[in-house]
Amino acid sequence: MIRIQNLHKRFGRQAVLRGLNLDVASGEIMVVIGRSGGGKSVLLKHLIGLLHPNSGAIFVDGVDITRLGRSAFDRIRERYGVVFQGGALFDSMSVFDNVAFPLREKTPLGTPEIATRVAEKLEQVGLSGMGGKNPAEISGGMRKRVAIARALITEPQVVFFDEPTTGLDPILVNTIHHLIVELHRKFRFTAVMVSHEIPEIFRIADRVAMLHEGVIVESGTPDVIQASTNPVVQQFIHGDVEGVPQHG
Amino acid sequence: MSRQSSAAWPLPLRGLEALGRLGIDVVESIGRFGLFLIQAITYIFVPPFKVGRLAERINFFGFRSLTIVMLTGAFTGMVLSLQIFLTLSRVGSEAFVGPAVAIALLRELGPVLCAVFVTGLAGSALTAEIGIMRITEQIDALTVMALNPTRYLVVPAVVAGIITFPLMTAIYDVVGIFGGYLVAVGLLGLAPGTYFGEMQTFVDSSDIMAGVWKSLSFGIIVPWVCSYKGFHCGHGAEGVARATTQAVVLTSVLILVWDYFLGSVLP
Question: pTM to 2 decimals?
Answer without folding.
Answer: 0.85
